[in-house]
Amino acid sequence: MKSITTYQPERDDPMLRNTYTPPSDSWYLRNWSSCILLLAATVLCLLPFSGRAFSNDDPLFIWTAQQILQQPLNPYGFEVNWNKNAAPMSETTQNPPLAAYYMAAAGKIGGWSERSLHLAFLLPAIALMLGVYRLAMRVTGLPGVAAVATLVAPAFLVSACSVMCDPMMLALWIWGAIFWIEGIDSDRAIFLAASVILIAGSELTKYFGAALVPLLFAFTFARRRRLGSWVWYLAFPVAVLIGYEFVAVKLYGHGLLAAAAQFSRNHRLWTHASKGARTLITLSYMGGSVLPALLLAPLIWSKKQIALVTVASGIAGIFIMRGWVRLGLTAGSPQAFAARNEHWVIISIQLILFIAGGISTLALAIADYRGERDADSLLLLLWVTGTFWFTAYLNWTVNARSILPMVPAVGILLARRLQKRSPNPTLQFKALVVVGLSACGGLSLWLAHGDTYAANSERTAASLVHQETAGAIDVWFLGHSGFQYYMQEFGARPYDWEHPQAKPGDFLAIPYSKVWPEDVTSEFNGSRENIELPARSYASTTSSEIGAGFYHSYWSILPYAFGSIPSEKYAIFRLAKSESH
Fold first, then answer.
1. In whole angstroms, what is the distance from residue 403 CA to residue 392 CA?
2. β-pairing, 475-477 with 507-512?
3. pLDDT at residue 21 in the model
């Protein structure tokens, strides 16, 4: 059996297969050392954020995990007030439950503290990094570059600081792809069986994991040039997803995958953004989320190519900033334009750079396929363009979490492009690569720090509200994310807009800012106390005023932004009369 664990271009050439020799012991030692260094780098990057507060969609996964410990076969059998009124969790969440099952085991063993759960989710992040290195070994001689480019990409580093499902889904995706490719190369059924089990796990962690099925089908057909028994293996994750829908219908009266698809469609229709606008915003999110493709551009493209892309991205940036494309009801609203116009210079510069990075990312995949025309390059092309298509035209919003699945593929493409541009790199060329990746890592850590500070401020705000309302019998609040989680931990209750139960004399806490969350403080009467938490970082993943929206593109045209960040604001009302809405 031939080895398939190292980069050997000749292995796919029938004329050269007999000349292949297994790698030496020193090769294995060298790669084990690289894996240990990669593991250490991953831990060093993420460990400082292991105490960060829960934020964004973290609470949804935590509550589901706690429900699983009570009713293991009914993960969504409870109600939650996440969007202004109480609703079944099966209608609120848009993700399958495997990550919550993993969290339930972690919480049962280590407890539910922030540090305990973040450390538990460090394991999938490590598995992802090692998987990228393993996959890259078979298609490039620079697997370390591919892995480091993945590690320092903002889409990964910021996402991995949460306890949401995205890095776990991608870790299962990567290892599913590895076992499938190595199973196809070696004709080992056990590898194919392991692969489809991992693929099923990936799609039950996040529905996008199912995209690996057509991706591997296209790769294998391009490799084998015919159908074979391998097709039946790919039927397994499809059957698992269908079975999951049947179980969901029995438990909750509707399919959860179908509900997620309808949710996405409804939100796309509601925003009324044009396809051109979604295309440009997605390019912006790609360029910022997969930052190595931008920072290493001078090493992988000619000066003429860079100039053309810069001009094109500049024109695209003007179209967005001037509102010449239909951005929709959110990013194109008068409030959003007014907020961005106060910082239009810094936003425009970042927007143009990010769109250029997005173009560079797509060009990498296209250029690689045009140059190689083999199954590996087809896999990478479809991986990147398929993720782009989903994010731009199928997902409910453009966000960095949707861009995350393409990050390993872009890392591999960068390594292949660098190797092709400089087969025998000089010391200066290597130094420039190191500088580019290091700069990207520094920016990503800065962003992770800013995102962590924003998450911690929600916990701080909840604590301050609790102190100001100490002794009160009924305390209510608006807003979700981490603010909701910690307010409920302090015993407060979410305000239900459809069935308000607040009485005169009750306290109501409301987060608000210039654009998002929506300022509804004028709709309530009573004495008011304001809380303001100043930002202490000039990097933000969620700030409508400077156009940043890592987790969704509502009010935003950038995945993150650098600049002066407004304070977080909260109001505490002592209600003067019953409110009805």
1. 10
2. parallel
3. 42
